[in-house]
Amino acid sequence: MNRLSLTLSRAIARVTESPLGRYQSAVIRIGFAGTWLLFLLREFPHRQELYGPDGPWSWDLARQLTSDNHAFTALMWSGGQAWFEVFYLLAMLSSAALLLGWRTRTASLLFMVGVLSLQNRSVFVGDGGDNVLHLMSIYLVFTRCGGVWSLDARRAARREAARERGERVRADRAGPVLWAVLGLALGGVTLTGRFDGDLLVPVLLWTAWAGLGLWAAVQRLERARESRVLLDVIANVLHNGALCVIMAEACLIYATAGWYKIQGSRWQDGTAVYYPLHLDYFSPWPGLADLMSSSGTIMMIVTYGTVMVQVAFPFTLFNRRVKNVLLVLMMTEHAVIAVVLGLPFFSLAMITADAVFLPTSFLLLLGGLAARARDRLTGRGDGTRGRDGDRDRGLDPDGKRDGDGDDGDGDGALPAPRSPEEGARGHVGFTA
User: Fold this and answer.
1) Alpha-carbon distance 119 to 88, whole Å?
2) Which pTM value belongs to this model?
């Protein structure tokens, strides 16, 4: 009984003390925001046909559909051309802000609003990657995905360094202003009845807005340490729960896809992959498709291998080595799909979903390589990084591996460990 209580207490402490998978959540933040931003940029010349008020799926048709299924879309607030152009631009800006990790909490909310609004405006546009983005945009709202590799993390590290040097840290002004402006906009939309028929999105937006304001108020009170700890625990629980949901969602996608494929006769006889390679819609490179499909053995191996990998993946999470091998195979498969079948955004969305299972050591290595490449491009790489080079590899100045609970500075370098006697203010993820 004591052993069970000890195990339970450790599990509770693990979930509440710190956000898990900080680097994985940062990668999926960058991946999904970047995928959506690239999609909006590529379709910018065709935005009117896809989502515009005068497109083939007209504003009136979309209005009838959303009134029946109660799907949220801000594009139904007005049928004017000006509102559509402004909203499309705001969707791109929010994606860029989330990609860079600027005001990550607010950016994730605006990112969700942009994704839901555009996709629900024209539900017949897109592919399976849009469904993944649709779900993940909601889950990202609950994660603390700006803890590392973000402008928020860089700003927090600089403020903490200035505080340790005894310098005066100026109060954040952009956060309260942004919070007030968005509160006025949200209040105006609510009072004018724009949220007609939808409850989930307005409740989520108002709850997040109130949480941001509460955290800002608690942060300014020096004696509210207990309140900051409580908010920190709530943020950690939400983050860890959302990360588990994202992982479960990825497993469900592969499991259901694999088991449905097993029931298909073309997948059973090993010829299913052959047919999409010869559809004009999925053949941007006909010569490459013909080369791949020229061998019946290769087609059979790819067909059976796809089914086996998808069905087996959820069960390989209990074995790290096998899981990593299947991750490489699935990411390679999606990269091939992006090139051969001409589905780059679907493949990017799925590769990003797979990235939540990547090991932290591998992500730290990528972060260090990216930091050194950035330094060379900006002219700061002189080959004498010394101890900073160790930090890029996830090592402290003594050559020891840093833990996943340290605060990153947003560029792949981890700060040096703090001595036990040095105090540190509690940091909560509710930043505007």
Assistant:
1) 12
2) 0.86
